[in-house]
């Protein structure tokens, strides 16, 4: 029975042989489910976006694009761009308190705490008691330092691709503008 607006259940003749060999030895229900949902196609995102004069919308759109670029570079390292940034700041600050690290990164303590718990679960950071009971210190573990070191060449390559795309002059202008807004 064919539903209106949906393609016929059977595959085109050219793919039928491949389809039948794929289902060889599998229960009939596999083939039925495949045929039932074969019309579902993955969503494809295009670069056609609505124009906007809103600075916020455009900055967020650009940030998402840049994050995807760096996340793609860090794919094989088990960390994303936010985690890489956190590990870099942690290494630079050398055992800061949670408050100091949050302030340096421009994050609130609760957001930073959630991110730290993930990294702590992966063994990349360690939270230890500070001088008083209210203060917690964040330490980069040896595994965290190794992960950061391993990911650095991929990060630098991603950085260089963006610099090449923008050019040195536009990069400097962009950094100045972003600094003004931050």
What is the residue-averaged pLDDT? 81
N- and C-termini, Cα separation? 59 Å
For the biggest β-sheet, the strand order reads 1-2
* Helical/strand content category: mainly alpha
Q: What is the element string, with H for helices and E for strands?
A: HHHHHHEEHH
Number of continuous helical runs: 8
| Helix-residue proportion | 55-70%
Question: Tell me about the biggest sheet?
Answer: 2 strands, antiparallel
Shape: globular
Radius of gyration: 24 Å
CATH class of the domain at 66-181: Mainly Alpha
What is the H level of CATH, i.e. the homologous superfamily of the domain at 66-181? Winged helix-like DNA-binding domain superfamily/Winged helix DNA-binding domain
Instruction: Tell me which CATH architecture of the domain at 66-181 applies here.
Output: Orthogonal Bundle
User: Which residues form runs of ≥5 with pLDDT under 50?
Assistant: 6-15, 36-43
CATH topology of the domain at 66-181: Arc Repressor Mutant, subunit A
Strand percent estimate: 5-15%
Quick one: how many beta strands?
A: 2
């Amino acid at each position: 029975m064919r539903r209106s607006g949906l393609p016929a259940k059977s595959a085109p003749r050219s793919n039928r042989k491949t389809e039948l060999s794929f289902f060889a030895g599998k229960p009939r229900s596999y083939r039925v489910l495949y045929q039932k949902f074969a019309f579902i196609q993955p969503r494809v995102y295009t670069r056609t976006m609505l124009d906007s004069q809103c600075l916020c919308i455009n900055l967020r759109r650009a940030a998402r694009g840049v994050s995807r670029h760096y996340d793609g570079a860090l794919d094989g390292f088990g960390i994303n761009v936010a985690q890489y940034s956190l590990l870099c700041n942690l290494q630079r600050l050398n055992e800061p308190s949670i408050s100091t690290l949050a302030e340096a990164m421009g994050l609130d303590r609760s957001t930073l705490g959630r991110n730290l718990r993930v990294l702590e679960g992966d063994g990349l950071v360690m939270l230890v008691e500070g001088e008083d009971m209210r203060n917690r210190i964040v330490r980069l573990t040896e595994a965290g330092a190794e992960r950061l070191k391993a990911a650095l060449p991929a990060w630098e390559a991603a950085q260089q691709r963006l610099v090449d795309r923008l050019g040195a002059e536009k990069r400097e202008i962009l950094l100045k503008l972003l600094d003004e807004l931050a």
